[in-house]
Specification:
By secondary structure, the protein is an all-alpha fold. It has one domain. Helix content is about 90%, strand content about 0%. α1 runs antiparallel to α2.
Length: about 90
């Protein structure tokens, strides 16, 4: 089975949108959570900064995890293509 370039664009598009949404949501949650904790305990920017940094860490951790899955999926697809090519070559002879 040959590689479908449209499917590759869809995978990478999904990856980009997923990272963008994860980044925005984690930063907003870190910002709101840090602001709430700062207001509750009276520690002006401490929890806000910690929350934002935690949001950045979570989003990049998610990015690396999704990238690893994308790479593994591509490797499996390539191995299956090579196997199919060998099977077709064996059937022709």
């Amino acid at each position: 089975m040959k590689k479908n370039p449209l499917l590759d664009y869809a995978r990478y598009g999904n990856f980009a949108v997923s990272f963008g949404v994860t980044l925005v949501v984690s930063l907003l949650l870190g910002f709101w959570g840090g602001s709430w904790l700062d207001n509750r305990f009276g520690t002006s920017p401490v929890f806000l900064i910690v929350g934002i940094l935690l949001g950045v860490f979570v989003s990049f951790k998610s990015l690396l995890t999704e990238l690893q899955v994308l790479i593994n999926t591509e490797d499996l697809t390539q191995e299956n293509d090579e196997k199919d090519d060998k099977d077709k070559g064996a059937k022709k002879t």
